[in-house]
Amino acid sequence: AKQQGRNTYQLYTEDLDNKLSRRVTLRSELQEAIEHGQLSLHYQPLLDRENRVVGLEALVRWHHHSKGFISPATFIPMAEETGQIIPLSRWVMRKACQDAQRLVTQGLLAGRMAINLSPLQFHRPNFLSTLRNVLDETGLAPTHLELELTEGILMHDTDGAIDILHALNGMEVSTSIDDFGTGFSSLSYLRDLPIDKIKIDRSFVKSAAKSDKNAAICQGVITLAQELDLRVVAEGIETAEQHDYLMSLGCEVFQGYLFARPMPLDSLSSWLAAPSS
Ligand code: C2E
Ligand code: CA
Ligand code: CA
Ligand code: CA
């Protein structure tokens, strides 16, 4: 038994070593990616009930020289742990605002560019001043910017979050709660905080037209939002059935592969310029 225990231990440490060295490699490669322009942004349109584009969401991409495409679902949480999310987010914010301003100038964007925020980024003392600098430097009007926050961001240091949200509201930068319904959080913050929108998480939208429970959640979220004067976005719309169903519930904004996938700026420009079908 002793012998076996030792082998298990060795396997375990080897495995841990491997994991650790993979992470160390990935970490230094991400540093390189941030510094040497291996990151890019894709943009996904948001549409209203008449299929007019009312906004875009910026989604970061990492094109690794040998591993190919690495999903943000993998490297964003890692960057959050290592603190690399700070320079990464700074790059995302500047690039998204630059591109948004270009689209506005070309008459291709009347709505807002939405940027995903990380908890670490939002709770830094200089968050607002960095944001103001980026807006100044890129010339983007705050009325063309939206920030997507998660429930987790608001639950951590709620008092600090309230002050920032009020400042953003005063600047006319709009805010939305991303992945709404997945955070197990109290709903009272919706009443107390100056938030403009909620995005119903894809997991509820996915089977809303088929599952009674997910339908009830979507319906509940939409009713709640209407009572509180918040707009509702349904994300992850892949089928006409999902679209029709959420329309019937009164949802106002839609995002998903049914309409458009996230695209690089040049494809997006053509897509936006093309007469809508
Ligand atoms: P998210 O903010 O919930 O973004 C929506 C995700 O759903 C995106 O995945 C998008 O490509 C995907 N999506 C959109 N429509 C559909 C659809 O119809 N069907 C399906 N199956 N998926 C759809 P993506 O781009 O892989 O991003 C994953 C997550 O990574 C994001 O989830 C967000 O939490 C995070 N993320 C992405 N970019 C950034 C960023 O710049 N900063 C931060 N902090 N997080 C980011
Ligand atoms: Ca988002
Ligand atoms: Ca507002
Ligand atoms: Ca989401």
Automatic annotation (TrEMBL):
First and last residue of the signal peptide: none
Domain of life, per lineage: Bacteria
Residue ranges annotated for the EAL domain, each copy included: 23-276
Protein known as: cyclic-guanylate-specific phosphodiesterase
Organism: Billgrantia gudaonensis
